[in-house]
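Example 3.
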Amino acid sequence: MYAPAHNFLVCLQCVGEENWVDSRTIYIGHKEPPPSTEAFIQQRFPDNRIVSSKYTFWNFVPKNMFEQFRRVANFYFLIIFLVQLIIDTPTSPITSGLPLFFVITVTAIKQGYEDWLRHKSDNAVNQCPVHVVQHGKVVRKQSRKLRVGDVVFVKEDESFPCDLILLSSSREDGTCFVTTASLDGESSHKTLYAVQDTKAYRTEQEVDAIHATIECEQPQPDLYKSFIQIIGICSENLLLRGATLKNTEHIYAVVIYTGMETKMALNYQSKSQKRSAVEKSMNAYLVVYLCILISKALINTLLKYVWQAEANRDEPWYNQRTESEKQRHIVIRAFTDFLAFMVLFNYIIPVSMYVTVEMQKFLGSYFIMWDDEMFDEELGERAVVNTSDLNEELGQVEYVFTDKTGTLTENNMEFIECCVDGHVYVPHAICNGQELFFRALCLCHTVQVKEEETVDGIKHGLHQGKSTSFYISSSPDEVALVEGMKRLGFTYLRLKDSHMEILNREDEIERFELLEVLTFDSVRRRMSVIVRASTGNLYLFCKGADSAIFPRVISGKVDEVKARVERNAVEGLRTLCVAYRPLSPEQYEEVCHLLSGAKLALQDRDKRLAEAYYLIEKDLILLGATAVEDRLQEKAADTIESLHKAGMKVWVLTGDKMETAAATCYASKLFHRNTQILELTTKRTEEQSLHDVLFDLSRTVLRHLSGDCTDYGLIIDGATLSAVMRPGQEDSSSGNYKEIFLEICRNCSAVLCCRMAPLQKAQIVKLIKDSKEHPITLAIGDGANDVSMILEAHVGIGIMGKEGRQAVRNSDYAIPKFKHLKKILLVHGHYYYIRISELVQYFFYKNVCFIFPQFLYQFFCGFSQQPLYDTAYLTLYNISFTSLPILLYSLIEQHINMDILKKDPSLYRSECFFFLIFHIFDTEGRENSNRVPKPLTAGVYLLSSSGRTVPLNFLALDTHYWTWINHFVIWGSLIFFVVFSLLWGGIIWPFLNYQRMYYVFMQMLSSGPAWLSIILLITASLLPDVVKKVICRALMCCSLTVCGELLNFCLSMTWKTFYVTSFLT
Amino acid sequence: MMASSYNAKEEDGHHSGAPAHGGAAAAAAKSKKPDNTAFKQQRLPAWQPILTAGTVLPAFFVIGLIFIPIGIGLFVTSNNIREFEIDYTGVDVDSPCYSCARNFSWNNTAPCLCSVDFTLEQPFESNVFMYYGLSNFYQNHRRYVKSRDDSQLYGDRSALTNPSKECEPYRMSDGQAIAPCGAIANSLFNDTLELYHIDSNGTRNTIPLVKKGIAWWTDKHVKFRNPGGNNNLTAAFRGTSKPVNWRKPVYDLDPSDPDNNGFINEDFIVWMRTAALPTFRKLYRIIQKKAVTTPTLPSGRYVLNISYNYPVLSFDGRKRMILSTISWMGGKNPFLGIAYITVGSICFFLGVVLLIIHHKYDTRNNSADIPN
């Protein structure tokens, strides 16, 4: 039974000329038409190789170097290194070359390792075998060799190697089931359909004989947007890479997008990375330091020439220049002098800072993952860190935007009651209400029955006969409803051959043919099914939010139901309304026509579908309403209270009804009984103009601001919000609205935004983020509808909830439960904020301390750029003498005990002034103040005639938390310094062309005054700090006053100058 | 936790599905559960010093009490050190070395001699160290500091005839390599100082000056070496040229002691350790104590004979001769003692101030606490 070759043609259709380029033509099985038919242009498609790696073996070195030198600091050091190579500079090129090499190598190794892992996983994916139909036979091929147009054969439980169009399936009806768990986390089975024209081709030979072309769009990243535009083919035929075939023996499908053009790959690419504010400010500091450096070099160059102006200063008889130097032009000489000073002082910019900060963040994030208290027994999940860059941002959050369902609440739905025609039914109660209502609920859903298997997501036991089965759905409400119906006597059994089977009260099986599903979307906020009963009657059942149903209802006991719905909503229950519409066969014809027209639309398919749905879901007859309870998560109220105490503003953004959301807010203590609620809802704006309402509210808020401090809570709904945000017709006042709205929000302790579309959530976050204070925002949510806001906020946190893993995948941090937010913010966030700020300050501080004597020394050596330190010390100072202690310090420092932090959330804000002051004053001021140790610079200088310095470091004063690791590292680096010095000075190193350091260190150690000076210096340097600390503690002023800062700066600078000058003379 | 959730489910009447699922979850939970170690939970045992007035106050007093005596000790020791300094540059017309200073020329072969009289008011009891001091001499200038070849000084034969580029412009002279090369060596201090005591009857007594042991032992024995050992230095240095400003070649620096010639001449080694500041002193000779009863340098009149070879006026420099005894803490250095006393006193003072603050704060704090 060889099928005729040209039996059908999924033909090229008339697409508008402008769209032509954006579409691709695919020839199934590579059967190109004869060249004569039309101007045939062979399109080129990529192969099916997935490349997530950044580098190849060959381009790793150049590409990685390029990437790394794009960093300001690295580039700067490269320049310094080159300058040292080219001109005669005080220090050898090694001093900057070696640290740079070290830093670059460490980073390159890290990146190389990560890339190697990616290569490995890529290879595993690219080489996994795929079955391809070739010449009527199934052939094994490596996945990467797949090409667009190949026909592949996929067996059950295999995942799809690329994006495919389903041609035929082993199932009778040409359907197949897939799960997209690895794509969006939804574990429910989705039904996909084979292309009508091909579903009859069921063997290799038949499939191989298909001669057809497919016209489809060029790849787009949107996972949920259907984009196949062909007669008879729609997104229901599209199998995405990464999805897994389930419950279907095998399928045949044709490849349409391969490799990097699959939706999965496109999606991974488009995720942009967030950068922490600290990193941004670090770059700013670098610029500041560069300015300091340049000015220092300029000053010294100027002074040098002023000093040299006097006769015999520049070239006394004992110190002549060479002939070539004498002939150099003065400008060139001055310029090289300037460069030499730059090189001399370049250590002020810490080369290893970036690496240390990165390591600190990377290693630090493990403490979040390791946290026992953030482990959830029930889910068996612990906190996940997707981006370690944002650790410290967690400690500065000012606004928390939280989702309600699944975040504040458990998303563990419990069917409470239903109301049919005003009569209320609760489970287990005998009821004889309208059975149509129960059938409607049994039919109008997308729940699947899964038999005896555990899948992530929604699992509910269902004891039915001998076998065990669960209801699975992407929406927990539906599961709750179907289960509730089961308890009321109507059990949904299965969907079989497009027939839904229901076990009714009399234990009879009723069969309904499922004709159409008008899927749920968040704009319509309702879903419908069209079924044909065994009697032949056609029904449309519609289920949705009350606001989505009531306007479309024409009869039924609307008032009673409405009253009940509102009562339930106030109690915090989630309500849904159910309605139906009997359809005559003619009407059904029309519906089919509308739907198929929309489904096949080439442009604006979504829009046309929505229009079609709008036309179909009308003239409904109200059946009743349901109420489902969503319990608050454990300790949600406690967490919110803590966040409030920590000075954070908590906003709830939800798609729920206002009443339900408000009830949840009261329950979670977001609103208190004495909170004065301000409403900015459609109800009010209907009565007054938006303008008046806004001004009213702002007046209320501002009036009370001066008087007693009442708590304000604001409730705003989506419609009003979009009115506020709308770029107005009266262009000036619209900006005004935003301002007023922000003003109101700022004065409210809690804000509830209900009826929000996902994009509106992101809009709100953006509005706050861009407001003039630029507060740090945090968004937390669990569902796909929260993704936009998670991506928008500075920090996005995903809850490992029941609505799939999309939020988790897109988040920066993921936690199992809402209550863990408390620990991650108040403890981890606060720690990392303090730690990183001290780390950065330490780096700048220690280098200023290191270089300042160098600067002073130039006044004593005729501005000749003579370095004060030996090359080896210059080189190793940043890498090994000083970086390890601070790294560990910044990993394990706990200035306040964890438990205290948790108990007293107000500490969250306590030391957040650091960066502020850091900004206002010259960093030298800040750094000299108290945070970090004083390296001993001048003391040793006195003794060794060639003058070198001991960069001893005493982190001791600032460490509040001395573990053995601290001891080990601090004393270890000290010992390392001593050992190194002994070695360095103790041996004549044959590879060096100078032996200046020979025995200097030993000579120094053997002299009593050297030791005495060291002791004195340490004491005297620490003295001001200790005093300041004690006084501060005594006066309870944790925040540092401006005066204190300045005073401290002056003090320590005077000290230092004093030491240097006095010891030298 | 898990048990309670089971119960909840069973109450709802879903007994059957739960156990299977629960078991799987428990297994998963075990694998993902973080280790409960002190390190991972950030609960390492730690010493948490808290700087309160209570803990710091005693420390301040203790530091004060320790530092002040040390400071006084240092100060007294420093004051007991005898030091005498005389400037013999010859800037003023009436100073003895004026003509030598004025008429200096590199071409003079005969040394210009001058002598300076001085009186020691107090006797110098123990060993006396004799220094020469230079001012406004930038031995720390970068161009100067690096103008040497350490491998040449280490006795390396190839470096001897082919010194490092760093020595320019003191590297070659008349086609021959300079040994020792470089600006430092070239500008070796070459004044000769002799000291005489004039006793009560007016006779001059030469004071023996010891020139051994003025350089670091390691420098003399390890860092500096003559090419080919110490025998026959003339031959070893053949083919090299003396530094342009020297009067004698390097192997002839000390005619009196053959072991003090070449690169291991101690005056040379001392000079080669460059000073850190433009005003510096370098050890020249040691005057050893002879008898227990008599002081090394009794008080009285002395004459310093100088063969004036080293020009400093061109760069406005000064030359000094310093006599000093030393103690365990080295030369005269009153600063360290003063600094110790100062820091000690500050500590003590701060201790007192803090005590007052602490006291006041405590009472205030207590009174504030009571209403709560």
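Chain A is about 45% helix and 20% strand. Chain A has a mean pLDDT of 73.
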